[in-house]
Design goal:
- With 281 residues, the chain is of the alpha/beta class.
- It is 37% helix and 22% strand.
- It has a single domain, classed as Rossmann fold (3-Layer(aba) Sandwich), CATH 3.40.50.150.
- It has a seven-stranded mixed sheet, sandwiched between helices.
- The relative contact order is 0.12.
- The protein binds S-adenosylmethionine.
């Protein structure tokens, strides 16, 4: 069973199914129900088990496993480098939160650098956060939009990898406002977006419904472009934002954050990386 891929159908067949939202939705529900039932398995080359619903590992083939791990290790290094720019490091972080941890791709590697009892996770996919916490020793907390006041000012590092790349702007604002509350003064925030470089290479996403011209025009006009995956019922899709748009958004909902660095296409050569620090006092 360790050979089960997250995507069971070949891409062209899957795209045809996706054109019928109702059919795709039923198929997806069944696929995830099967994954939930199977749980997790050992995948050679990865430490800790991998959940059958871990959508970040498209198949257990060697090339996919290598790129899943290399991607996570690169993020861990970037977290460390980002902390270094403000005179800190991973080893001395006391409480680290990954918002949108999925099924633990990054925590799986980060726990080699930070004791697991300092790691906290959440995800709107409760199963993903539950699995990550149970498998890797992290603690699950509520999604930040529902986290009570007891979580305010608790974290010295919060990171979101490939989360704002999928949300509508009002959802990003709600999330970011609360993320800024959860940071302690001096705490560091790290998040990624799709920016101009990603828009100009949007064909890499291989989405039959996506018109790259519209993305580039949207960015030129407003600095922002979002389109919901047409085969989903929930509000989740692909989002692009220019740097000025991100800066406006942060200034309006999280003015306590000051910019530390920006690396265009700095993650996986396609996502922009932003690092911020919460002002003291
Ligand atoms: C592309 S996946 C990335 C998963 C993980 N960060 C990684 O890089 O392996 C995006 C994740 O963000 C989660 N997500 C989306 N909106 C969220 C929110 N408001 N709070 C927590 N998680 C969220 C999704 O459920 C999904 O697991």
């Amino acid at each position: 069973m360790s050979g089960l891929s997250t995507k069971i159908l070949p891409k062209t067949m899957l795209d045809n199914v996706k054109r019928n939202r109702a059919v795709y939705s039923v198929g997806r529900r069944l696929r995830f129900a099967l994954g939930s039932r199977l749980g997790a398995r050992v995948v050679p080359g990865l430490s800790g088990r991998v959940h059958y619903n871990d959508f970040m590992l498209t198949s257990p083939g060697q090339a996919h496993v290598d790129s899943y791990r290399a991607g996570a290790l690169a993020v861990v290094d970037l977290l460390d480098e980002s902390l270094a720019t403000v005179g800190r490091d991973l080893a001395s972080a006391k409480a680290v939160l990954e918002v949108g941890c999925g099924y633990g791709r990054i925590i799986r590697e980060l726990r080699d650098r930070i004791p697991a009892d300092r790691l906290y996770v959440n995800d709107v996919i409760d199963e993903g956060a539950r699995f990550t916490a149970a498998e890797f020793g992290a603690r699950q907390i509520p999604v930040v939009e529902q986290a009570g006041p007891e979580w305010s000012g608790r974290f010295d590092l919060i990171y979101l990898l490939s989360v704002y790349t999928h949300l509508r702007t009002d959802m990003i604002e709600d999330n970011l406002r609360r993320v800024a509350d959860l940071l302690q003064p001096g705490g560091v925030l790290f998040f990624t977006t799709h920016g101009q470089g990603s828009a100009e290479t949007a064909e890499r996403y291989e989405q039959y419904w996506l018109d790259k011209r519209k993305v580039i025009e949207g960015l030129a006009e407003t600095g922002y472009y979002y389109e919901r995956y047409p085969y989903y019922y929930s509000e989740y899709g692909l989002t692009w934002m220019t740097r000025p748009c991100v800066e406006r958004l942060v200034a309006s909902v999280a003015p306590a954050l000051e910019a530390v660095s920006w690396r265009p296409m700095g993650v996986g050569s396609h996502q922009d990386l932003y690092v911020w620090r919460k002002r003291q006092g």
